[in-house]
């Protein structure tokens, strides 16, 4: 609720007002209404003003939320073991990291892969935010300067594929813009944003036929008022990611559910969430540009998109299960036994709990691994 959230500083408010003016102008140009997906896109990615495009402090204790790689080194180091094993099977290749945030995961995973003697041919950071590309370069320069020449940045998905490798993204799919839909006595309504005298407001209108049909198929029989999201961009985005590699693995971790849990009758208000200074709330109109906006991932939709992109879905399961199956405990043990880490014992134990316990990230996050291997696609 808005009154419980901390008041942004005056400078931040002025920044948000500039973004709001930009969005209001776009609403005028569009005839008085934009779909929610466009509003989310503008809030997060308007160049120089959007949440991910401007220089705000988003990640970690001083930001708005903490992601798994920001908790400590265990997540990245465990993934490094997974990457090494998969690259070995492929006979080498590149790692393409989607939306690498602060660059923490790339720095920690590259350091561990170096120790394991299995560095990738290149580590590509596919990042649409110019501000974050710069931040990632700074993190890597500080942590692994001698490996910087292996790292390259991509602003968008290139046309030419690499022969083999791994595409990985943590908490990227939940940042893709979604449509919000509501079952009504008259049919399906689509949420959008229009102007009011002061700022902006929700505005519902009948959904286009294709969106309405997909929504009704996904939610099944539900009571009027049932509201949830669909990510229309997902199939095309996964298709494009599929074209990055001739053969290899695609690994996604994110907040999410299988479809029957995503569109459960009890989840009748959907999964949309905003994150502002470590408070999760639902007011998407709160200071646009100063907070993250996310929606959980429908992992059945993700699996379908992977299959449509000629990948085989190898694994869908809880993050805790995936990490424990792939050596988290051994990675933690090695860290605890290294003489210089003794002071961090409590942090490491806390990190294990946060990554694996059901009430923490262990079951709130799912992992999906898909693959396309030569001779099997
Ligand atoms: C919630 S952050 C996650 C950051 C990081 N992966 C982590 O776990 O700390 C989302 C990231 O995805 C990036 N992003 C969102 N949409 C993207 C897209 N279409 N292409 C590339 N990066 C994208 C954002 O700029 C940001 O770096």
Walk me through the structure.
With 377 residues, the chain is α/β, with parallel strands linked by helices. It has a domain at 68-175 and 234-261 and 296-372: Rossmann fold. Helix content is 39%, strand content 24%. Helix 4 (74-90) packs across helix 5 (104-116), helix 5 (104-116) packs parallel to helix 6 (130-143) and helix 13 (345-356) packs across helix 14. The longest helix has 20 residues, at 10-29. The model has no long low-confidence stretch (mean pLDDT 94). The site of S-adenosylmethionine has 18 residues, from helix 3.
Short description:
With 377 residues, the protein is an alpha/beta fold. The protein contains 14 helices and 16 strands.
Offer a few descriptive terms.
Rossmann fold, 5-stranded antiparallel β-sheet, 8-stranded mixed β-sheet, 24% strand, 377 residues, single chain, binds S-adenosylmethionine, alpha/beta
């Amino acid at each position: 609720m808005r009154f419980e959230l901390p008041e942004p500083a005056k400078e931040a408010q002025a920044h948000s007002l500039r973004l709001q003016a930009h969005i209001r102008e776009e609403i005028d140009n569009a005839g008085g209404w934009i779909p929610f997906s466009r509003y989310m896109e503008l809030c997060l990615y308007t160049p120089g003003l959007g949440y991910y495009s401007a220089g705000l402090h988003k990640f970690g204790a001083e930001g708005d939320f903490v992601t798994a790689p920001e908790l400590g080194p265990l997540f990245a180091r465990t993934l490094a073991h997974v990457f090494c094993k998969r690259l070995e099977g492929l006979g080498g290749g590149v790692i393409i990291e989607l939306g690498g945030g602060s660059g923490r995961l790339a720095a920690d995973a590259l350091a561990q892969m170096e120790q394991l003697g299995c560095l990738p041919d290149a580590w590509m950071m596919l990042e649409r935010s110019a501000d974050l590309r710069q931040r990632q370069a700074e993190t890597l320069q500080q942590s692994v300067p001698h490996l910087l020449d292996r790292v390259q940045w991509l602003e968008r998905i290139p046309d030419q594929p690499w022969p083999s490798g791994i595409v990985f993204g943590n908490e990227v799919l939940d940042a893709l813009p979604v449509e919000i839909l509501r079952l009504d006595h008259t049919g399906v309504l689509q949420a959008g944003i229009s102007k009011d005298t002061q700022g902006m407001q929700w505005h519902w209108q009948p959904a286009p036929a294709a969106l309405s049909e997909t929504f009704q198929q996904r939610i099944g029989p539900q009571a009027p008022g049932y509201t949830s999201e669909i990510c229309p961009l997902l199939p095309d985005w996964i298709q494009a990611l599929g074209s990055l590699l001739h053969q290899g693995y695609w690994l996604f971790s994110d907040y999410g559910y299988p479809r029957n849990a995503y569109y459960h009758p009890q989840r009748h208000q959907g999964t949309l969430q905003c994150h502002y200074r470590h408070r999760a709330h639902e007011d998407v109109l709160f200071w646009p540009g100063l907070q993250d906006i996310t929606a959980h991932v429908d992992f059945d939709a993700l699996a379908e998109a992977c299959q449509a992109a000629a990948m085989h879905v190898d694994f869908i399961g809880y993050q805790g299960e995936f990490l424990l199956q792939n050596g988290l405990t051994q990675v933690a043990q090695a860290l605890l036994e290294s003489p210089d880490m003794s002071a961090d014992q409590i942090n490491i134990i806390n990190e294990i709990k946060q990554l694996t316990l059901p009430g923490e990230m262990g079951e709130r996050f799912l992992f999906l691994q898909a693959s396309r291997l030569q001779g099997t696609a």
